[in-house]
Specification:
23% helix, 2,3-Dihydroxybiphenyl 1,2-Dioxygenase, domain 1, binds fe (ii) ion, 9-stranded mixed β-sheet, alpha+beta
Length: 375
Amino acid sequence: MSKTLMAAAPGTQTDFLPLEGTDYVEFYVGNAKQAAHFYKTAFGFQSLAYAGPETGVKDRASYAIRQNKLTFVLTTPLRANNPMADHIYKHGDGVKVLALRVPDATQAWKETTSRGGKSYMEPTRLKDDQGEVVLSGIHTYGDTIHLFVERKNYKGAFMPGFTEWKTVYNPTSTGLQYVDHCVGNVGWGQMNKWVGFYEEVLGFRNILSFDDKDISTEYSALMSKVMSNGNGFVKFPINEPAEGRKKSQVEEYLDFYDGEGCQHVALATNNIIETVTTLRDRGVEFLKVPTSYYDEVLDRVGHIDEDLAPLRELGILIDRDDEGYLLQIFTRPVEDRPTLFFEIIQRKGAKSFGKGNFKALFEAIEREQELRGNL
Ligand code: FE2
């Protein structure tokens, strides 16, 4: 038995860490001004807020951008010899903060650190004339951080320290709605340690597991366990490389990120055909599976509402579980290192992660690894 689908967690009665969802994702990047422009232009985000020397923040520039319930923050250091610059030197552009919205950031910090979480930031009150935000944080895998964000008493654009960022250039939305899940790649033999961390420190549950028999092509073996909080609003699959004939895609990531980190962020849409058409037309590059994938896909997944032709043309993948089906596609890495990428996902009942697509998908990844000379 290689797959286990467990019942959703019962009510939040014993949930010591109630989460209201993903608050934002912060990326450390080499050039935040240009990264913000890229995510606005290519992915359809809007200007939201800015922090930097002009707002009294001397060591960095941060651009907050938003699309529906999705908020990204692009941050760059202004000088060398600080932890942000070191982070970028080591990892390249990547996810630094997976920020989680909580009703009480002080309590979240106390609950998690008392259970063994390593503090990154003690509860900190930030105030301006729009109100108050309380932040606290703990370390997770690699150099990645979970910040707890309490913003119920704040009315401003983003948070104190930021000023509202208004621009003439405001490209239209691509229909992206919210963070569906964020995947972490961890080192050899480290998956169960991090599964235990999410269970013990954050009160998550392991809702789905895949072993290397599920997720193994000729080369690209990996293992994965999906961790979910009590209400299911926050899901963190954890991947570990497995022994295969050649180098696992997770191992390639670990080599080029120089350690553990966020592999992909899945962004939900209500209309994947429209969203992916727009993303493609604006220059987002996607992994392609062979068109033969579509010859028999409906035999596997049964009836779907969408026409197959646009799915085939765009390279959108389809999978089904007991509760419905899902449509998904993966971008190529969004930086020159083969590290972070994005998934675009539309769920039509399915709560799973596209296991039926792993083989076709990983073969597509291997073709790209081969081109990079990393297989
Ligand atoms: Fe995913």
